[in-house]
Amino acid sequence: MCGIFGYCNYLVEKSRGEIMDTLVEGLERLEYRGYDSTGIAIDGDELDSTLIIKQIGKVSALKKEIAKVNPNRDVTFVSHCGIAHTRWATHGEPKQVNCHPQRSDPNNEFVIVHNGIITNFRELKTLLLNKGYKFESETDTECIAKLFKHLYDINYQNGHELDFHELTKLVLLEIEGSYGLLCRSSHYPNEVIATRKGSPLLIGVKSEKKLKVDFVDVEFPDESNLGRPETPLIAANGKAIHSDDNNITVTTNKKNPDAFLNGNGHSSGSHDDNLLPIAANEFNLRYSQSRAFLSEDGSPTPVEFFLSSDASSVIKHTKKVLFLEDDDIAHIYDGELHIHRSRREVGASMTRSIQTLEMELAQIMKGPYKHFMQKEIYEQPESTFNTMRGRIDFENNSINLGGLKAWLPAIRRARRIIMIACGTSYHSCLATRAIFEELSEIPVSVELASDFLDRKSPVFRDDICVFVSQSGETADTMLALNYTLERGALTVGIVNTVGSSISRATHCGVHINAGPEIGVASTKAYTSQYIALVMFALSLSDDRVSKLERREAIIQGLKLIPSQVKQVLKLEPKIKELCATKLADQKSLLILGRGYQFASALEGALKIKEISYMHSEGVLAGELKHGVLALVDENLPLIAFGTRDSLFPKVLSSIEQVTARKGHPIVICNENDEVWMEKAVNSNLETLEVPQTVDCLQGLLNIVPLQLMSYWLAVNKGIDVDFPRNLAKSVTVE
Ligand code: UD1
Ligand code: F6R
How far is the CA of 373 from the centre of ligand 1 (A)? Predict the structure, then answer.
């Protein structure tokens, strides 16, 4: 995932060399998160100019680039604001122009580092292109930098020299999606803006003197008209933003930028019950000092600020940190930190506390988690949401996969679809094959890449070959891709890593946007691949009236998945206990599933094998009686998927075959399922209850207990979960 770091010194003299070293070291502390390129922006030699240095690859490559550019390290700055970034590509492959900081123009008037995704960047880009802006990168971030300049310029032309935070409010009115961002500008020397929505951002404060208070007041729009412009401000569409009294209070209703509040706090365009009327002067802090940074005698206090997306890069410098909340606009200038918001909301806090971090560095990198694998399992409510973000309209039950849209007519004409992948990625194909066939009415085959190549399987020009890969670099999958390209097939990628070989070589595809996966065992990539494939299948059928009801049910089911995954994660204590008791010291574990849950069984068994080194086998429940049943006795541990779908009676009968042979299965079932509740009492059977969803999505929830189980089995054996023996994260050899 991308990382942000910023450093501001005020009345603390620093050489440019020291400032660059602080920024680069801040980035090094973010390295563990995974990234593919880096960059910094600092003051240049000309007055109010900005110097940007960026490079693809690791921070070490950035250091070399800095040495090559060779800026004078000895120049000193009494006050300065520098910003830096590690990028994990989502928009545009890793190359120098796509690295952050991104800029508004060749003079670097506005320079931005950004984490997150701007979902309406295409619309913004079109608007800005029409205004004559020239884009140099493929990033969504560049449109934010250009938007800053555009709004600055048009307001300046209309006689407004806006505060940096007021300008930021106008920019945020226009952008949709998620962001954590820092902005510096030659128009606002030694100032920096930090703002966030759905992406973390915190500010570390370091000062010799004790802060007067350990909080910062939140500042709301000036209700008293003090210092208000006489003429209305201008929005990106060129329209005036104003109300009767010229209060520029902005609403968060981005779809309707003309909706605004009047001075009484009532909506003039639309009604918003969350807004409180604000008495004139009540919160008029705009021109007051931020109390925390006032010195006793009123003289300026030397102070340093460290801004970051992650406490790990700040803790070395200071343990005093303030966490920004969504929609906060932090404005740092003259040694003060101000927090602005566009409007007051009922019950919202009026201050942000400056907390003391008690954690040590290693703890912070993995948050409260012991391993990356555990962290990534717990990230799934967020990563599954991010896969769908900006792509599903839950109100209108429609899907928009930008990377596939133009290709859908060609894909619909295909005679067959071949899905090709390895390992966990192969399992995500198996998990979605049935719904793909049901919705698209095109036969789908699922292939292990190595076997597909070994067989030299015939491929035709009218075949659609779908390649699924977390890393986008797996050699077997890549070779299979080349093989199908040579035969003229249309190739589609379902890939996590933007700019990876598979993402670039395929004709089209979908980035799953799960964020970097660091633990060797694939967890959050599986659930995101699964969702991406379901969205693909839904897109293929959006012209079929006969599928309307089914599609709506699936889309509404997808909407609930992130919160349902969160619910499943609550099973951890029970799973942990099972791993320490019933499943401890076992040699083998069978996992039974059928229909949609066969893939869950295979994926669960793979997780258990690779992480805990315990033999485990995923068994198609219908095959039990054809051989595997011979293994079953009262000692063999067994897990069965017994969640409800049309195959439930058959699953029930398979599990009865097991209990009849004195087997004691652990059944993953739906919450409060009476059949299992009764069996749990009458037979020796344990249950792990998960919420119910649409049949074809149930595997998204059912896999989570097995991810947790593999994790705890391994931890109990003292295995280094993130680096299991003999395995590598990216298998780039055949
Ligand atoms: C884009 C944004 C996304 C945003 C959405 C909202 C990009 C990179 N992504 O998604 O963050 O939420 O708009 O409208 O702009 N591709 C391949 N092979 C692959 C994967 C992707 O060729 O394996 C291609 C796609 O065909 C597309 C491009 O890469 O041309 C970007 O794909 P993707 O990130 O999925 O873009 P969108 O779905 O358009
Ligand atoms: C298992 C695992 C592997 C990968 C496989 C394919 O946890 O991670 O089985 O799924 O090596 O890798 P990608 O998805 O990167 O092509």
Answer: 26
User: Which atom of ligand 1 lies at the shortest distance from residue 122's CA?
Assistant: 14
- In short, whether 389's Cβ falls inside 6 Å of ligand 1 is yes
Q: Which structure tokens are listed for 67?
A: 């040495």
User: Is residue 90 lining ligand 1, measured as CB closer than 6 Å?
Assistant: yes
The finding on whether 402 has its CB within 6 A of some atom of ligand 1 is: yes
Distance CA 119, CA 255 (A): 13
- Integer distance in angstroms from the first to the last C-alpha of the chain? 28
Is the distance from CB of 54 to CB of 101 less than 8 angstroms? Answer: yes
For 446, phi and psi rounded to 5 degrees?
-120, 130
d(CA 164, CA 454) in angstroms, rounded, equals 61
Q: Assess contact for 436 and 478: CB atoms under 8 A.
A: no
Alpha-carbon gap, residue 591 to 601, rounded angstroms: 5
pLDDT at residue 486 tops 80: yes
As a whole number, mean pLDDT of residues 627-637 equals: 85
What is the SS3 assignment for 48? coil
Cα–Cα distance measured from residue 606 to residue 85, given in angstroms and rounded to the nearest whole number: 36
pTM: 0.70
Radius of gyration of the chain (CA): 28
Ligand found nearest the CA of 475:
2
Helix (H) or strand (E) holding 305: strand 303-308
Residue 504's Cα: distance from chain center in Å? 21
From atom 8 of ligand 2, which residue's Cα is the shortest distance away? Answer: 522
Q: Which of 207, 348, 368, 179 is nearest to 275 (CA)?
A: 348
Cα–Cα distance, 48 to 709 (Å, whole number):
56
Q: Is the CB of 466 under 6 A from ligand 1?
A: no
Give the per-residue pLDDT at 1.
60
Nearest CA to ligand 2 atom 3: 423
Mutation test residue for ligand 1: of 386, 477, 511, the one with most atoms within 8 Å of CB: 511
Least Cα distance to 572 among 369, 372, 268, 272 occurs for 369
CA of 511 to the centre of ligand 1 (A): 6
What pLDDT, in 10s, does the model give residues 563-617?
999 999 999 999 999 999 999 989 899 999 999 999 999 999 999 999 999 999 9
- Sign of the Cα pseudo-torsion (285, 288, 294, 300, in order): positive
Closest CA to 372 of 572, 515, 577: 515
The answer to whether the beta carbons of residues 446 and 548 sit under 8 Å apart is no
Q: Which protein residue has the closest C-alpha to ligand 2 atom 16?
A: 469
Nearest 5°: phi and psi at 111?
A: -130, 135
3-class state of residue 388 by DSSP:
helix
Whether 2 sits among the annotated catalytic residues: the reply is: yes
Percent of the chain with pLDDT over 90: 67
Across the chain, what does the average pLDDT equal?
87
Q: Which residue has the higher pLDDT, 630 or 298?
A: 630
- The whole-angstrom separation of Cα 626 and Cα 586 is 24
469 closest CA partner among 460, 459, 479, 458: 479
**Cβ atoms 684, 638 nearer than 8 A:** no
Q: How far apart are CA 143 and CA 147, in angstroms?
A: 6
Q: Rounded to the nearest 5 degrees, what angle is found at the Cα of 362, between the Cα atoms of 361 and 364?
A: 65
Ligand approaching nearest to the C-alpha of 511: 1
